[in-house]
Amino acid sequence: MHQITIKAINGYEMNLPGDTCADFTRHGEACWQIPEMIGTGIFKQIEFRSGFYLFIADYQVKQHCEWDIVFNRSGFGIEFCVSGQMQGRYTGMDLSVLLREGHSPLCYFPCLSVTGEDIKDTRRFSFSIIIEPKVFNTLVGGDCKHFPMAFRSIVDGTREYSYYQPGEITPEILSTLESILRCPLTGPTRRLFLESRILDLIARRLQQLDECSNTYPDDGGITLSDVEKIHQAASLLAKDMKNPPTLFNLARSVGISHAKMNRGFHQVFDTTVFGYLRKIRLQQAKQLLENHQMNVTEAAFGVGYNSLSSFSRAFFKQFGKNPHRFIRNRFAGRLTNSKPSS
């Protein structure tokens, strides 16, 4: 179904499946130990039936690592990021997606490859469900009418394109994930227990999709192409944050509707277009103040604020300190660090 390669900066590579397994268990369950030269932790794969997998990654790397996943067949994927963050790039699509703790994207991928990065000394803990289309159709009983149109057309086989819809790990989903880790059973009863929990996860994640469809009946999800356009719009805002385009001009410039752009920013960045603009303005202002390139007034107007009081309130809300106190604390810290030791 898939081939996974992990590459460390020292040139070491680990291939899954393919390399020696630290532990194999019956009933479709396999476990790989992370080599010491890369880090600590495990990869685990459970095959419930042909075309239906659970993949668990729980590890921490000692150095920056990249991983490649090559999917040989089309499939649906549901990711649950419990801890850490991952930067994924979809080969041939010029698309990069940042997956953080609490995120749970649902996607459909034709045959493609994904390249990701793991950050040094950061624990990555995630669950991935991979389902081939025929298995997925069997699970939902062919009843797709409640799904968003873009997703429905993939499930029923009328269209074949990449699909991506962000989601979140709810308390109920987290509880189900924890029950998977605590499973006390062995042998075939363990497999039955785990499959029941995976079906519960799929049902809860599809319920989010159904609720999204009720909120946006024309198209509750966004495709990978839409995500790319959302990132393009974000780049345009970053390039001219002092004089940003209007929402309608921004949407038109990347070839997406105004409504879908608003929806896309919520799904990709978990904020509005204005919220995203405010965030990058404040981050830029903070950097200017840290590097002593500008004073508070210059930084405020330099990133597009027309009111110093509005800038100060927004800065305090974002960073917990007003900009003047932020500068004083930074200056005091440098004086302390520069004192000779006695």
From TrEMBL:
- Key words of the record: Transcription, Transcription regulation
Taxonomically, the superkingdom here is Bacteria
InterPro entries on file: Homeodomain-like_sf (IPR009057), HTH_AraC (IPR018060), PchR_regulatory_protein (IPR053142)
Task: List, alphabetically, the SMART domains matched.
Answer: HTH_ARAC (SM00342)
- Output the Gene Ontology terms for molecular function: DNA-binding transcription factor activity; sequence-specific DNA binding
The UniProt record lists the keyword Ubl conjugation: no
Q: Which segments constitute the HTH araC/xylS-type domain?
A: 231-329
Q: Which PANTHER family does this chain map to?
A: REGULATORY PROTEIN PCHR
Name of the protein in its database record:
AraC family transcriptional regulator
Organism name: Desulfosarcina ovata subsp. ovata
